[in-house]
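Hey all, quick one. A colleague (J.T.) asked me to put the uridine-diphosphate-N-acetylglucosamine job into the tracker so the inputs and the structure tokens live in one place instead of scattered across chat threads. No bug as far as I know, just bookkeeping. Sequence used:
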Amino acid sequence: MKKIMIVFGTRPEAIKMCPVVLEMKSRSEFDVKVCVTGQHREMLEQVLEAFNVKPDYDLAIMKKSQTLFDVTANILRSIQEVFEKEKPDIVLVHGDTTTAFVAGLAAFYLKIPVGHVEAGLRTHNLYSPFPEEFNRQAIGLFAAYNFSPTEAAKTNLLSEGKNPDRIWVTGNTSIDALKTTVRDDYSNPLIDWVGDRHLVVLTAHRRENCGEPLKQMLRAIRRVADEYSDIAIIFPAHPNPVVQETAKDILSDAENVKIIQPLDVIDFHNIVAHSYMVLTDSGGIQEEAPALGKPVLVMRDTTERPEGVAAGTLRLVGTEEENIYNAFVELLNNEAVYSEMSHASNPYGDGFASRRIADALAVE
Ligand code: UD1
Ligand code: UDP
């Protein structure tokens, strides 16, 4: 039996790795161990509960306003012991967080082969998103198994000289997760609060946006909220103190904006499914919204998810107030633009990515 150690630590990794955990645990070929770093705390718990995944190890490293130094050093120090004790045959990490990079680095130091789920996403700009572009490129240097969500991601790896025999195109496990969460009969008091207004979902958290870019984003949104009483904005704000304070300063007294705690993944997916549109700087939401047919204004200068832009659902609007304001107003006023962007289209797979990952690891 192969011993597979699956490591994750933040909300988006958990959402995309829990389907892999559940698939691999259902197979007799694998002895699966789950190690969470606890880079996130409440937001990680919400996902573990939703998928009923119980970690074997929790490094519990999160502290308030943690720096990249804190996260990197604390994971590296504490994960060594877990890997040395369990001696896994393969360590699986996901995407581009500091958890993924450091867990992969620790496995590399111990000469344990690393499998990289969601491999090959690139902006080719190490500072955007920061530090995620570095993290995923670095994991690509030592990954023995690359599980790419799309052909475009595979092409990125090939252009860096990776061995094609070590790349599997699987689809994105976010679609596996989405298939289990969205329900036709979903109800929630938040949706009652929206009533017959257009529901706009807002999220913002990127490290490089905290500061002036976040203020510009939220000011643009505040202007639109004040001008359009027929919209209702729900903002599940990231617990990062900078996000919380900026949200409170700029949006808290707007009648048609609700700043709330992060939603659990089942509520979040269903609320997006009920929405008119989304504004975000998130990565994962750029994969989910096309599948749900919801236009997304991506408040970033770059994206590693060009498939959603090509599908017509995502539009990159940058982080300047005037540009965000104009794009937001256009989507509210121009029906042709709205209907162009709101066709459901899913370039990220059929919801069986976890099965393909398990199949590949079973024979390797
Ligand atoms: C991290 C990832 C980012 C990912 C994001 C998803 C890195 C460097 N960044 O960024 O790639 O897009 O997660 O959300 O790996 N906090 C809590 N409770 C929680 C989570 C966070 O209070 O459950 C607060 C803490 O004060 C913490 C701060 O948020 O110090 C920042 O968390 P951190 O994981 O360092 O950065 P994120 O911006 O969440
Ligand atoms: N999400 C959630 N609750 C929320 C906001 C987002 O469950 O209140 C989910 C969302 O569906 C997506 C993931 O969290 O799957 C995205 O996480 P985040 O934006 O924190 O990180 P990123 O994808 O940018 O790395």
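Adding what we noticed when we looked at it: Residues 10-12, 39-44, 62, 64-66, 68, 71, 96-98, 131-132, 205, 207, 239-241 surround uridine-diphosphate-N-acetylglucosamine (ligand 1) (CB under 6 Å). The mean pLDDT is 97.
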